[in-house]
């Protein structure tokens, strides 16, 4: 039972949410009439399957129910002055209209209904007696506006704008017995209603989207609830060029933006006849590059340890980032820029090339930096080598210490095996030279005859 009641309440709530507002009009459509005249009120709502009574209200109080959607006021009197509303079956309460029953000799009749932008604004100047007027003039806020809008006793503005709002009145010569007398009507304020609000361009995510990301734009406006069936058309502009429209969709999307899409964007909303058109303020949108990240550095030989005189190659790469990427190479402790390519090479390393190296990458925004890599250049050690016939002996170059057998070399010093790049520069006797060659040691071509040999041998770190 409780569930059924809840469902009933929900259904009622939904029906109210989608119900249209009833529209109340007058025939004739004037808010001011002379005493004794008649007028018909008409309540227009959505069609219903079963005829139901229409409710009428005067100054906020229920006046009566009618089986039809009309209410007739005959022989109007002062007591009929006031505000009227209605409610038809299936609708919410209507707009209000105000009726004024006048006892004046000259009146200005203006529309009883709201006049919206782009609609016809019409009014007329009437005297108590038909045909009693001459030299009719119309005024807005005290200024004579008779021309170019007036024809006889009527003033018509085909497409009303907001600036047509103001206090209107009319004047005319009226026959009074045997003479003409100039009279003026009471002033009435007319407000031209806004059909829809000035649009605002909404950027769904950010006004600084990243290159390659989508750009979603919405043109936001609010249509008056009193004109729910008005069809609005939308146009989207980028740097004053039409990007889309006119269309009935208020959305525009760029699937993937590029730097060329940077600029000022706006939108316009208009009616089908284009008699009402409004523009949004321009919105600056700046497309940003995808920032550089994941800068990595590779070194060859691996681990950054290279023999003196050999080549060192460093390579810089990025994981993400768009646009033209520039690189620069640096060594810790030095302000010098070593290179400006993704690859940096030292063809022949020296001991002075030892240090920590890193690269930087930029696409025009903030640069990103790689981790540092230690480069160690493994140098040469100068030793004196003696070949007395019973084996090669050595001692530190320039030292007067006795020669030692080769097998007594310290652990950090190694005689490298004969392979490309391991060249022993030696000066030796012919016998010693042949024995060295037989041992697989490469001799420098400039070897000379001597009692001993002097060599450069690679020295470990």
Task: Summarize the SSE layout with pairings.
Blueprint: H1 2-18, E1 20-21, E2 23-27, E3 32-34, E4 39-44, E5 54-58, E6 61-66, E7 70-73, E8 82-87, E9 91-92, E10 97-102, E11 106-109, E12 115-116, E13 121-127, E14 133-140, E15 143-144, H2 146-149, E16 150-151, E17 154-157, E18 166-176, E19 179-184, E20 188-190, E21 192-193, E22 200-203, E23 215-220, E24 232-238, E25 241-247, E26 251-254, E27 263-271, E28 277-279, E29 283-285, E30 296-300, E31 305-307, E32 312-317, E33 326-331, E34 343-346, E35 355-362, E36 368-369, E37 373-378, E38 380-386, E39 393-396, E40 404-405, H3 430-438, E41 452-458
Parallel strand pairs: 1-9, 3-10, 12-21, 31-37
Antiparallel strand pairs: 2-4, 4-7, 5-6, 5-8, 8-10, 11-13, 13-17, 14-15, 14-18, 16-17, 18-19, 18-20, 22-23, 23-26, 24-25, 24-27, 27-28, 27-29, 30-32, 32-34, 33-35, 35-36, 35-37, 38-39, 38-41, 39-40
Protein described:
With 461 residues, the protein is mainly beta. The chain is built from three helices and 41 strands. The strands form eleven sheets. The chain has a five-stranded mixed β-sheet, with no helix packed on it. Strands 14, 15, 18, 19 and 20 form a five-stranded antiparallel β-sheet that branches. Strands 24, 25, 27, 28 and 29 form a five-stranded antiparallel β-sheet that branches. The longest helix is centred in the N-terminal third of the chain and has 17 residues, at 2-18. The protein is elongated.
